[in-house]
Amino acid sequence: MKGKSVLKKAATILTAAAMATGSLTVCGTTVGAAPADSDGGKILYLSNINSGVYYDYYKAFYERICADLGYDFEIIYGDPYNDPNGNLTAVRNAYTDDVVGLITTQDGGIESIMDEYPDMYVSALGTDMDSVFDEDGTNHGALEKDHFLAVSGDMFTSGEEQGQYYAQQIIDGGYKKVATVLFPSYAYPSTAIADQAFRDAIEEYNQTADEKIEIVGETTVLDFTPLDASFFLEEGYGDLDAIVGLCAGIQFIYPTMVVAKADGTCDQKTQLITNGYEYDADILADCGDDKTIKSTTITNPEAAFLPIALIDNAIQGKQYADYPGAENVEPGIITVDSTSDFEVIKEKFTDGQTLLENIAVSVEELEMLLIRNNPDATYAALVEAASTETMESYLE
């Protein structure tokens, strides 16, 4: 983890903005800020979800940013299986002459979309965009287009890093018998890499450990359906210490665990270590040190600013001097792994609007990183501001 200080970061952002523009944000009010000079138009957001706290947050966040910058904003929905034709059709159905930018959460068909709408600027959020960045990827040609700007990735930009991260959680937690569950590689290629990296890291640990960690069987792949109850009836799976869910485990694994614990097929001590977040009072009551859900990782909310910032700069014709071209930027990763952490989540991640009001770097501070508001703003500062990642950021 990078362990940045959010308070220091926010102060740096404001100081730079004040020096460049003679403006300063005080108590939420921007004094002397440069006026917006957008030509307007519409920003489309191609979403892969249609509910939940993060969906509501992204909706509220982009509606606020676009209103401030003079854009219309519209959410459209991608194909549930990331099918290229389905995503292209979604954009076609929504496209009008005033569309100037697209923020996409899926990579299926992105090159075809850009071929059909070459004047539309494109950035991505919450996706690895493997098909774009891999040299043999089906959408690799999009990387050569100057209107493809950047990706604010899906937590870990490296499957190997993700696997090692979860292995360390297992080691630090003292778990001795575990199993892994993940989404299919056709949709998330990095999860198969993460699973192998997890196994390699545990194997390396076992070479010198007094008590070895057992990984039971091969990984279980969920084709976007809940974990089947028969999982716990297989030999070795009824008394696991932990399940590592390289997927949205709170949605796809946890409900099955609850039922299995109730009927006695899953050991009461079995815990879930996963990623993703759902605001539900009953679920959150079962999160914490000695609960079913021991930890989850989520993307920092501020990461959503990077795609719209680059699109706005491009539309204004004022891109950062240090902009390196399209790259996959790893967002901040918030690890929620204690009862006290989950208490903070209950308070600040209640719904989209509450989360918007509690983000560690405020909307006002983020908007001062736009070239239109701060001619001396830098890409480096944007990446820094979009990468607050620790729970400490939200304990202030």
Number of strands: 15
Q: Averaging pLDDT over every residue, what do you get?
A: 87
Helix content: 25-40%
What is the radius of gyration? 22 Å
Uncertain regions spanning at least 5 consecutive residues: 1-38
Helix segment count?
Answer: 16
Distance between the termini: 18 Å
Q: Give the overall form.
A: globular
User: What proportion strand?
Assistant: 15-25%
Determine the structural class based on helices, strands and strand pairing. Answer: alpha/beta
Largest sheet properties: 7 strands, mixed
Descriptive report:
The protein is α/β, with parallel strands linked by helices and 396 residues long. It is 38% helix and 17% strand. The strands form 3 sheets. Strands 8, 9, 10, 11, 12, 13 and 15 form a 7-stranded mixed beta sheet that branches. Strands 4-3-5-6-7-14 form a 6-stranded parallel beta sheet, sandwiched between helices. The chain has a two-stranded antiparallel sheet with strand order 1-2. Helix 2 packs across helix 13 and helix 6 packs across helix 7. The protein is globular. The two termini are 18 Å apart.
What is the gist of this entry?
With 396 residues, the protein is of the alpha/beta class.
Write the layout of secondary structure elements.
Layout: H1 6-21, E1 24-26, E2 29-31, E3 42-47, H2 53-69, E4 72-77, H3 84-94, E5 99-104, H4 110-116, E6 121-125, H5 130-133, E7 148-152, H6 159-173, E8 177-182, H7 189-206, E9 214-215, E10 220-221, E11 242-248, H8 249-252, H9 254-263, E12 271-275, H10 281-284, E13 293-299, H11 305-316, E14 328-329, E15 333-336, H12 339-348, H13 352-358, H14 363-367, H15 379-385, H16 392-395
Parallel strand pairs: 3-4, 3-5, 5-6, 6-7, 7-14, 8-9, 8-10, 8-11, 11-12, 12-13
Antiparallel strand pairs: 1-2, 13-15
Helix pairs in contact: 2-13, 6-7
